[in-house]
Amino acid sequence: MIDSHCHLADAVFAGDLDQVIDRARTAGVAGALVIVAAGDPEEEAQAERLVSSWDLVRFSIGVHPHAAHAFADDPMRAALVVGEQLQRSHAARAIGEIGLDYHYDFSPRDVQQRVFRAQVRLARELVLPVVIHTREADEDTIAILREEGHGEVRGVLHCFTGTPALAQAALDLGFYLSVAGILTFPKAGPLRETVEDVPLERLLIETDSPFLAPVPRRGHRNEPSYLPFTAECLAAVQRRAVAEVDEVTTANFRTLFAP
Predict the structure, then answer these.
(1) At the top level of CATH, which class does the domain 2-257 belong to?
(2) Does 45 have pLDDT greater than 90?
(3) Which of 85, 136, 216, 241 is the most buried (most CB within 10 A)?
């Protein structure tokens, strides 16, 4: 199976990165899409270290909505920074995570929107998929993807926790939905009900590590080796064999990210 979204370039993994990779392989996780914060030299350096340690790791590079305020004076500069960093990484396959976060509002909403638009336009120009972060911003997220994607940009709503309406809107755009450890949480019944009706051919699985460790690893730092817990939960939700979930979500990953 493949972890379609994790933050192994984060400093929290710097001290034991090799062991994290070894545990992932032992758990049957063949590869991962690692999210890299655009313009962060430490993350970029750790990402390159990953390439030499795990041959099936690929990258997605973008300006997160929390960081959009750094580009308030010139939102197009965000796309420029991302584009330049994409050129430096032969393992880059996507732009993200990008999007909107109206829960924390660490960046003004109008700035988030302009930076998001600039990066979706870049994805369309480069013919790259996007990895979307959306929180309490469903309508604006879908609207911007429609307006800037022109029906050409594909991608994934990562760590999906949304409503059936958001799921359908994303599917109508040709997007995938990725489920994380939240799917295993006791209070995630509504999410499980929504995911039950999503075609497996449009689903991915992820850890979003180091965040959101699944049951039964709650309280621990999350890592790719915990991905099978989410795969097992998804299999139960969709009443399928774990092997089928593994096979189909891996194929979906390869279709979207062409690794």
Answers:
(1) alpha beta
(2) yes
(3) 85
